[in-house]
Fold:
Amino acid sequence: MSKQTVRRIGLQFDDNELVPFLFGEHDSHLNQIEEELDVEISARGNEIVVTGSKQNLRAAQSVFDVLWERLTKGMEVGTEEVTSALAVARSPMDAATRDTAMAALKESHVKVKAKNKTITARSAKQAEYLDAICKHHLVFGLGPAGTGKTFLAVAQAVTMMLSGETDRLILCRPAVEAGERLGFLPGTMQEKIDPYLRPIYDALHDMLPPEQIARRLADGSIEIAPLAFMRGRTLSNAVVILDEAQNTTPAQMKMALTRIGEGSRMIITGDLSQTDLPAGQKSGLHDAIDVLRDVKDVAMVRFAEGDVVRSRLVKYIVEAYDKRDKQGTDGKKA
Structure:
């Protein structure tokens, strides 16, 4: 523990059945909070005493407040939820933004189960994104991989479909040819395009059991296809998700946007820093952002690196690489 003025707070929890879920298996959650916040935690029954600096104690109390409220609402508290609460508590944001982010972690914004847990916003930006999807007919989710753009879009779309708010879920991606042309790849056309669509299948399988996915794919209530298959269609009463949209051309993006029919919503996700288009080719996503920035009923939610939701191991790996990169390529200080 750092050599700051040491203080101590005591916290008591009034439901003994929930306390083990708060502490984690073999006190894993308490150990994680200790390590991340540089505090010491001693537990006895349904009470804990937290020792540390004033700032770290304040952060720890916020984390426990979030986790306990989730449990009392019947929501999941696992390693991911603890990590999310810690990330918000430690981030250099103003008090109002932090309060908004913490409030988002306490609420269930999406009523769909993924691997037997309820999906919730894990940051203020994710809460803003889900709110935008509910309120606008066209939403852009912009930012780096790992921020939950596609996962949350699929979760919200599945929720709308299961509730009867929409009839169909259509998920598509541009099939960008990276070194090999589709026509020369082995297999049927479906086998050729499946690798481009696999991330969407993976997200969908996190939401629904395989037999239900198979049934809905067969009856057309769920459709997964390359963007090119959307040409010439009008998509009514559907939620349409266009993923990896930075790999569209301006013409492809315009085609996709003009597919929106009566009662439909469209969610477009992409990372402008990761385009696979040929050199010199303008991204349709970049073009659409410029053209539509002032259009009514269009929301643009921008995620940043700080919104990336990572496992603890990946976080440590990224930090290690960042440290190495700052020292130069040979491992010595530049």
